[in-house]
């Protein structure tokens, strides 16, 4: 008896619940916020500055190594001690990691973090170049 009442109740109320789950579709979706492109003028300028700083870091690092100094970055050390070719690979990996991280933040809609990270990379690399120049004097 109880099972029969339960089956009747489920049979009557389940279609009503399923009907309530249907969504009303509008003929036109609302406008989404405008998504800006990744390679804006700001990003092109920022990555040009970053590339210049990487080049200055590569030059000052090789000058320091030729004067008997040692690379302090343990990840870059195996590459930069191989000469200009290794230094180019290390700089390329640094640029690729920087652009890749920024693009990942851009694709995941973290635009403020994208700008902050880019500026921190520029500031950090500038500090490294300034340190290299100070040590070489």
Tell me about this structure.
This protein is mainly α. It has one domain (37-136). It is built from 5 helices and no strands. It has helices at residues 2-20, 41-66, 77-80, 84-107, 111-136. α2 packs parallel to α5 (111-136).
Average pLDDT confidence is 86
Gyration radius, to the nearest Å? Answer: 29 Å
Q: Give the number of DSSP strands.
A: 0
Shape: elongated
The number of distinct structural domains comes to 1
Following the backbone from N to C, one meets helices and strands in this order, namely HHHHH
Q: Low-confidence segments, ≥5 residues, pLDDT <50?
A: none
Summarize the structure.
The chain has 137 residues and is mainly alpha-helical.
Characteristic terms for this protein:
5 helices; 137 residues; elongated; mainly alpha
Please render the helix and strand layout as text.
Layout: H1 2-20, H2 41-66, H3 77-80, H4 84-107, H5 111-136
């Amino acid at each position: 008896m109880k099972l029969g009442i339960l089956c009747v109740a489920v049979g009557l109320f389940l279609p009503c619940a399923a009907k309530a789950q249907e969504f009303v579709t509008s003929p036109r979706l609302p406008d989404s916020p405008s998504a800006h492109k990744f390679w804006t003028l700001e990003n092109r300028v920022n990555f040009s500055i970053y590339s210049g700083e990487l080049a200055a870091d590569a030059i000052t690092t090789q000058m320091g190594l030729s004067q008997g100094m040692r690379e302090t970055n343990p990840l870059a050390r195996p590459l930069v001690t191989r000469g200009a070719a290794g230094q180019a690979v290390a700089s390329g990996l640094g640029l690729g990691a920087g652009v890749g991280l920024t693009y990942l933040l851009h694709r995941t809609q973290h635009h403020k973090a994208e700008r902050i990270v880019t500026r921190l990379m520029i500031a950090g690399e500038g500090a490294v170049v300034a340190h290299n120049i100070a040590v070489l004097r």
